[in-house]
Amino acid sequence: MTLDKLKNEFIKLYGDGGEIRFFHAPGRVNLIGEHTDYNGGFVFPAALSMGTTIALRLRDDNLVHMKATDLDDFVTIDLEKLESYKDLSWGNYQAGVMSELKKDGFSICACDMLYDDTLPHGGGLSSSAAIEVATALAFATLSNEKNGISAPVDMVKMALIGQRAENNYIGLNCGIMDQFASAMGKRDCAILLKCDTLKYDYSRLAMDGFSLIIANTNKKRSLATSKYNERRSECEEAVSILKKSLPEITCLADVSLIDFEKYGKTIENDVVYRRAKHVITEIDRVLASMDALKNSNMKKFGELMNASHDSLKEDYEVTGIELDTLVFEARKIDGVLGSRMTGAGFGGCTVSLVKNENVDEFIKTVGEKYEEKIGYKASFYVSKIADGGHEIK
Ligand code: GLA
Q1: At 208, is the pLDDT very low, low, confident or very high (cuts 50, 70, 90)?
Q2: What are the residue boundaries of the structural domains of the chain, listed by start?
Q3: Residues enclosing ligand 1, CB less than 6 A?
Q4: Which residues, at least 6 apart from 216, have a Cβ–Cβ distance to it below 8 Å?
Q5: Is 360 one of the catalytic residues?
Q6: How far apart are CA 361 and CA 349, in angstroms?
Q7: Could you tell me where the DSSP H helices lie in the chain?
Q8: C-alpha–C-alpha distance, residues 188 and 199, integer Å
Q9: Contact status, residue 3 vs residue 36, Cβ threshold 8 Å
Q10: Which of 83, 86, 97, 100 is deepest in the core (most CB within 10 A)?
């Protein structure tokens, strides 16, 4: 919705008067490097133009009021009781962020808030990270102003606060990728991020003649949290076994492909072996894809995207019939260089690299084949690559 419309909605809900401010944070698409972040490896995400925009105005009591433009829930948070909102079906992410900010010494200001989300909820494009980062930025900005701090808000810190909210308050042991991309995204660029050191570099996406098409399975995700946490523990198990041969390693990203070829067989459990294999080969694919981009070799980049999906399907086992159908139908279309799932998996979205002249055919044919096989429709987005979290002035 436009800012004017959001402002009108805000006034309708909370009344007129005072200064209304706007904060925005985007969702993300990850181009390659999946389930590598919590293993200390590389990821390559980009921020989208879709995301969360907050309209807010200060209050002079101890309450935060929150509503979303597309939901009926109206939430009141008592700032003295921040720990008691974990079970909210909407508003829990925001309460988690406030709680983590408070632990870091930020003052949480009372305010009225209206959220406008343009990302599909729970659709694998980091709608929750967008809410977390926009919320963190908004409250940190107000806190700095209240305390006379003129330095700009540290956006890497906001990403970490968002991740902590998710880990500690929501109970999903996610890595840092989504919140980092949402906080630090840059227009027309993807971010090469090493997730243990948080060293990063922007890489311009020279997409001349190509589009990135995002396709949403529209599958309702169930068990995603428990399966996600299960994958994470399997990786930790692999590390503890490999440590016997490689005592200096602290995470799977510390294991080179050569060492894995040597010592991988010490992992007797086939499932745990395949989880480690995915992570270690995927980190290698991210680096290979950087070379491909540097040489403008989009064909190679597409092949690496395909190999990434195949490894997520066979070895990491996080795809499922919906994601696989979108990917394998996509690969049959002319002009598709690569197609893979993006994000956690178990439903959610795919991303495909498609020649511009084939985009219409892609959407039509993949859409038809998907509905025929799965029984309901997929959605398609051709999103721009946009900036990370910021206040809209
Ligand atoms: C989710 C998590 C991220 C990352 C991806 C998989 O999006 O939030 O931290 O682990 O899954 O790459």
Answers
A1: confident
A2: 3-204
A3: 34-35, 37-38, 174-175, 177-178, 343-344
A4: 120, 123, 124, 125, 348, 349, 378, 379, 380, 381
A5: no
A6: 19
A7: 3-14, 92-103, 127-146, 155-164, 177-184, 224-242, 257-263, 270-294, 298-314, 321-331, 359-374
A8: 19
A9: no
A10: 97
> For 26-71, how does the pLDDT look when each residue is reduced to its tens digit (9 = 90+)?
999 999 999 999 999 999 999 999 999 999 999 999 999 999 999 9
Q: Report the distance separating Cα 41 and Cα 198, nearest Å.
A: 10
Expressed in angstroms and rounded, the spacing between residue 59 Cα and the centre of ligand 1 is 35
Ligand 1 centroid distance, CA of 343 (Å) = 5
Residue given tokens 């925001």 in the structure block? 94
Best of 174, 251, 312 for a ligand 1 pocket test (most atoms within 8 Å of beta carbon): 174
Give the Cα separation of 282 and 298 in Å (integer).
Answer: 18
Alpha-carbon 388 to chain mean position: 12
What topology does CATH give the domain 3-204?
Ribosomal Protein S5; domain 2 (3.30.230)
Residues 6+ apart with CB under 8 A from 128: 93, 122, 166, 170, 178
Tokens of 302: 């597409």
